[in-house]
Amino acid sequence: MKTIKIIMAVALSGVLFTNVYAEKAANLDELLKQVQQGKIRESKENKAREAEFKKSKARQQQLLAKAKQDRAALEARSAELEKRFESNQDQIDALKNELKNSLGDLKELFGVLQTASGDARATFENSYISIEYPNRAEFLTKLAEKMGSGTELASLKEIERLWFEIQREMTETGKIKKIMAKVEVPGGDEVDKEIIRVGTFNLISDGKYLTRDFETGTISELLRQPEARFVNAAEKLTNAKDGFVAFGLDPTKGQLLKQLVNVPSWKERATTQGGTVGWIIIYLGSFGIIVAILRILWMVFVGLQVASQVRNLDKPSKSNPLGRVLMAYHENKDIDVESLELKMGEAVLREVPKLSRFNTLIKVISVVAPLLGLLGTVIGMIITFQAITLFGAGDPKLMAGGISQALITTMLGLCAAIPTVFLHAILAGQSRKMIEILEGQATGFVAQASEKQHRSS
């Protein structure tokens, strides 16, 4: 195959040579001479190439022989290294067994040290005390890795430091200390602040609770503080110099505090969880209570005027109901008793609507409010059962919205009905008392006029 390729190359070069010299030859004899010279030159070149090919083949044979020799040497070296590795592995196993036997009871001690260092590292990483004493976890990480390798033992200095760090964590847990640290305030800025560390339970500053991201180490102020009693306790602790202060500890290092912060207030429950029915109850109940209180205050004012008029029956005034009734008597005291009685009755009846105004409205509100609460309860239960139908009863959160609305609206209805019932009772009692006074005084004056008429006759 190789010979065929060479022949084809020579023929192709001959054709090219012929084409080149054909252009320069003057006649056929000269062309023939040129072709003969070209063949002689090509023959010499081919012989030179053939000699070069033979030399190259010889060199390749030498390289192949050397490669085989190197491979044999490397295979022998590999076998030798495998034997040495097996020998070293046996020696390592023997040394490990010797170390294990020589350790004896110390092996259990180092096992306890490894476990203790791992547990302490987890505790220190999630401890507020690490704000004041950073980089403690790094030492414990290295110690745990060293003990876990099985080839190194802890030194006496490392054991003493482990004991010291655990003891310091226990001691600092029972202390309340003021330290300086960077605090992320609302808005994203970090400022240096004096914070109070309450053991390993809480962080406060300026009477506000702080939280710490244990992954990044960032201390930030809670965007929303817990209810007032906890904030007041934090303020008292911030301003305290000595003595005892009642303070709520968070043993979960902020998790319980976050849950308390997320608990909605009564206002939020009423306005957001009650829905449309809740808002209607709030507006209706507020209107009824405000009207009832204003009417009670007005009735108290009128009662004082009537009491003052009772002490001055001879000087009636138009500014109070009794005075207006008495003026009807003085204007008609000369007529017959039957007509006077009618006039007095008419005057009393004229005052009754004024004294009883809005009583019926307040009573209706006291009745409608719990009915609206019942309506909200029904709507909430419908929402709950719809959620169960669509998603099943596996996740209670899906049903919480409907149940919350049901309970909140019921509570709002009762909260609106109970005070309006009491206020209506008070207002109705005052109105009835005032009407009885008017009727009593009118009856008394009619009787007095009748007595005078009998005497004159």
Question: What general form does the structure show?
Answer: elongated
Task: Figure out the total of helices.
Answer: 13
Strand order, sheet with most strands: 1-2-3-4-5
How much helix is in the residues?
Answer: over 70%
Low-confidence stretches: 1-23
Structural class: alpha+beta
What order do the helices and strands follow?
HHHHHEEEEEHHHHHHHH
**Main beta sheet: strand number and arrangement?**
5 strands, mixed, barrel
Report Rg: 54 Å
Average pLDDT taken over every residue: 79
Q: Please, how many domains?
A: 4
Q: Let me know the number of strands.
A: 5
Describe this entry's structure for a reader.
The protein is of the alpha+beta class and 457 residues long. The protein folds into four domains: 2-82; 104-173; 175-263, no CATH class; 273-456. The protein is built from 13 helices and five strands. The chain has a five-stranded mixed beta barrel with strand order 1-2-3-4-5. It starts with a helix and ends with a helix.
